[in-house]
Write a structure and sequence with these properties.
It contains 23 helices and 21 strands. The protein is of the alpha/beta class. It has a seven-stranded parallel sheet, with helices on both faces. α19 (about 555-560) links the parallel β20 and β21 (about 570-575). The longest helix is centred in the N-terminal third of the chain and has 30 residues, at about 195-225. The chain binds adenosine-5'-diphosphate and magnesium ion. Adenosine-5'-diphosphate binds next to α11.
């Protein structure tokens, strides 16, 4: 029991899926509030938090309106003036005297009569000097839980947790410039300054990458034997399917399909990565492979990272099977939220082979799922899966063919480190019926116009996404959150149905919302980045991204891929929370390019690792700190170290690598537990 956590707080933590000491320790801050040196008032950026040193230029005014007491005054320095306002904080008045100098820190807003700062923190010059460059962790919260309460609980968790033995030899750490793991896991919560934060992040990101790569590589080794245990014949079914589709395959799709056919009919087991930008049409390739497998008398499984996506794939495949009269294909859905009776029926059909195209989430690989003849496993957006899931799946019989579909733009050289010796197909062409998405990058003052635009599109029968970086408010972080935004939109666009989607909802709830959105019952979907992965609602034509500056460009690009999927013109509005040139410049890249690879490269150049602007989404990825697109140096170092160890001792069985082996085992058991999809 952690000191100071009563049953009430415990229930609040449970809402955040925090139940153990380890959960708390790995509940990383989503952001850091950094105390930067004071700026001249004239440099203050509207919408941003800043500290200014100013002389109180006027008396302190006090006004009572209704139940509110408003204290206001004005400060100046040689470069400008700014008004300060506090609500219901009468004690402030006693602290401020005309002529005295303080540091004030808060968010700058523009009003008709000039700049104001609401509720600034107040510091003496000396006190602020002590604070400069420090970072305060900012946690994702839920109503009733304060940032301080989380900080305290995390501190308490560290007191209870036992020591973590270091698994990397000192020499390796020194060569790679890595701090100790234990130190890093503390400092990621409580860094003294930016350097400490970067060092902690670097170490933890390295571990994430290293253990992931090691797990992938040892898995390949353990699966060994690359013989094709499920040789297939080319079949007419797939040819007929292709010609009956409502569209013609793109050249890239055709080429990839031929590569897949060659694998399945060849003498070695398929291990292929199908990489293609969002909207390039990877799903149909998976369906073709499933059809070919069925026609050859085997079973296939398609694993998606979320229930929403699994259900969507399932329904699509069912529709396709019906429309195109695919008599050999018998799809079945298996997810965690099926009713017990449905699950029993699905399991029975999988066991006796009457279902031969199984679609689902990680439920597909639970112990009790027995396949009759599993020949092909496809994972969609697989990097979000724990490695051991793949291993578990591979254990259910002779090693099946593996096909991995991903939209993550990973440069080729990295892909090799990443996926080991997978063959790669690039689906590097978008279907031709698409109109390019129209993008704009705007400031907060554009929001009313954006709302009118969404209304207009809705009246034309279309739908819209509104993406926010946070689920709920966080202290010390100025960023739009799903709840507040949804409430506001419900008020402003009162005749539209507004739905909410975020990562803390139960899978069944998420499904319901996503289905309602797909069926047009919800017009505006306010969501976090959970919609980023693969969801396909062609009728949605607007995407409004709040605080777009808080996202990485690669992520924004993924998000943007949710629109522009139908034949109607689509629009993407990137709303930057503050008006600043560097932000606009970064976002301009998105404006200019529709190429995921190029965007990831440019983003890396501009942002660099350990950027503090971004907000991490908690809990929905294998990598919580590392970002494969921007942490290339770390991926490379981790890949090299993994390769080095495995060259010496392929199964990591020797005495010397025992600590690494032990750490890897812990990683595998943790990733099985933490990846709740
Ligand atoms: P992703 O590669 O992002 O998974 P999807 O497979 O979801 O993309 O495809 C996006 C949309 O494009 C779907 O609605 C799909 O039916 C459609 N599509 C796929 N291939 C083609 C094509 N060759 N021509 C036209 N539309 C296509
Ligand atoms: Mg997809």
């Amino acid at each position: 029991m952690i000191k100071g956590i009563g049953p009430k707080t415990e229930a609040l933590f449970a809402k955040l899926h925090i139940e153990t000491v380890e959960d708390l320790i790995s509940y990383y801050p989503v952001h850091y509030d950094e105390y930067l040196p004071p700026e001249p008032i004239g440099n203050a950026v509207v919408g941003a938090k800043c500290a200014v040193e100013g002389r109180i230029a006027r008396g302190v005014f006090r006004k009572v309106t209704g139940r509110k007491t408003v204290i206001s005054t004005e400060i100046d320095d040689p470069t400008g003036r700014i008004r300060l306002i506090w609500f219901n904080a009468p004690y402030i008045a006693g602290m401020l005297k005309k002529g005295s100098v303080f540091i004030f820190r808060g968010i700058v807003r523009r009003r008709q009569d000039g700049l104001v700062m609401e509720h600034p923190e107040i510091f003496t010059l000396y006190a602020y000097d002590q604070k400069i460059k420090t970072l305060n962790p900012v946690y994702s919260l839920t109503k009733g839980l304060t940032n301080n309460a989380v900080m305290k609980a995390v501190k308490g968790a560290f007191e209870l947790a036992g020591p973590v033995p270091e698994y990397l030899p000192e020499a390796v750490r020194e060569r790679l410039g890595l701090t100790g793991e234990e130190e890093a896991s503390r400092k990621i919560h409580f860094p003294a300054d930016r350097e400490e934060y970067l060092a902690a992040r670097r170490r933890l990101a390295f571990d994430e990458m290293f253990l992931f790569i090691l797990a992938m590589r040892t898995l390949r080794k353990r699966l060994g034997e690359d013989k094709n245990e499920f040789p297939m014949k080319l079949t007419w079914d797939t040819e007929e399917m292709i010609s009956a589709l409502p569209f013609a395959l793109t050249h890239a799709q055709e080429r990839t399909w031929q590569e897949i056919e060659a694998d399945l009919t060849g003498s070695t087991r398929m291990a292929r990565l199908v990489q293609g930008d969002v909207g390039s049409g990877k799903t149909i390739l998976a369906f073709l492979a499933m059809q070919m497998t069925a026609a050859n008398g085997y079973q296939s499984a398609l694993m998606a990272p979320t229930e929403v996506l699994a259900r969507q794939h399932y329904e699509k495949l069912c529709r396709l099977a019906e429309d195109l009269h695919l008599e050999n294909l018998h799809p079945v859905l298996l997810t965690g939220s099926l009713r017990a009776s449905e699950k029993r029926a699905a399991l029975a059909a999988i066991a006796d082979g009457s279902a031969n195209a199984v679609i689902g989430t990680h439920a597909l690989i639970e112990e009790r799922v027995a396949y009759r003849d599993l020949a092909l496993v496809i994972t969609d957006e697989q990097h979000r899966f724990g490695v051991c899931q793949r291993e578990a799946l591979a254990k259910k019989g002779a090693p099946p063919h593996m096909m991995v579909m991903s939209a993550t733009p990973i440069p080729r050289t990295l892909g090799i480190i990443w996926y080991g010796d997978l063959s790669v197909s690039l689906v590097d062409e978008l279907p031709g019926n698409r109109l390019p998405i129209k993008n704009c990058v705007v400031g907060p003052s554009y929001r009313p116009a954006a709302m009118r635009f969404i209304k207009k599109e809705a009246e034309a029968g279309h739908q819209a996404y509104v993406i926010c970086p946070m689920i709920e408010e966080a202290e010390g972080l100025e960023a739009e959150n799903v709840f507040t935004a949804a409430a506001r939109i419900r008020k402003e666009l009162s005749d539209l149905t507004v739905g909410i989607l975020h990562g803390r909802m139960k899978p069944a709830e998420k499904d319901k919302v996503m289905e309602a959105f797909r069926d047009g019952e919800i017009t505006v979907l306010v969501s976090t980045t959970v919609v980023e992965v693969g969801v396909d609602v062609p009728n949605a034509t607007v995407m409004l991204v709040e605080n777009a500056e808080r996202f990485g460009l690669a992520q924004l690009h993924q998000l943007r891929g949710r629109v522009g999927r139908g034949s109607a013109q689509s629009y993407c509005i990137f709303l930057a929370g503050q008006e600043s040139e560097s932000i606009t410049k970064r976002m301009e890249i998105l404006n200019r390019s529709n190429d995921g690879f190029e965007i990831a490269e440019k983003d890396f150049e501009l942002r660099g690792p350990g950027d503090l602007m971004g907000i991490r989404q908690s809990g929905d990825a294998v990598f919580r700190l590392a970002d494969p697109a921007s942490d290339r140096e770390i991926v490379k170092a981790a890949g090299e170290l993994a390769a080095f160890y495995m060259a010496e001792d392929p199964m990591l069985a020797g005495q010397e690598l025992a600590p690494v082996r032990k750490r890897l085992d812990r990683y595998l058991s943790e990733s099985a537990k933490t990846i709740t999809l």
